Amino acid sequence: MPMSAPESVQVLVQNGTLAEVHWEPVLTSMVRGQLQGYKVSYWRERSLQQAEAQQEEQQVLAFSGNRTVGRLPGLKPYSLYTLNIRVVNGKGEGPPSPNHNFETPEGVPGPPSFLRIKNTNMDSLTLEWGPPQDNNGRLTG
């Protein structure tokens, strides 16, 4: 099993749904076998709109070979995420890097939760709608 974790983990957030993670490779002597790749584990801690934690299921992406960069697609906008990275050889995974937090920026809000037409007249009508289920940021109008 590998003895060391990747170091110098950095996250470059591309947009509300995509981030790129970079790391320093583990020294060959610390891999203790044939390097198979790296595993990035990440999870959403919470929306940046809500104070309480609502941690979601951990996701794992595997990057084969001696890569030092990977892309994390499908993130939710306006959220706090945590990740760590492990090196993998033929016998298993090494220890995880220290957890690294990053935030995604605001995104486009979801559609209104409902839309109703009320008080129709010959030349006007009144609309009523509900807030979106996913704000993906601060609503401004």
UniProtKB/TrEMBL annotation:
Under the heading InterPro entries, the entry gives: FN3_dom, FN3_sf, Ig-like_fold, RTP_Phos/Ushers
Q: Output the Pfam families linked to this UniProt entry.
A: fn3
Q: Which UniProt keywords apply?
A: Repeat
Q: Which GO terms describe its cellular component?
A: membrane
| UniProt keyword Signal, yes or no | no
Q: Where is this region: Disordered?
A: 91-141
Q: What region holds the Fibronectin type-III domain?
A: 5-107, 111-141
Q: What is this protein called?
A: Fibronectin type-III domain-containing protein
**Species of origin:** Hucho hucho (huchen)
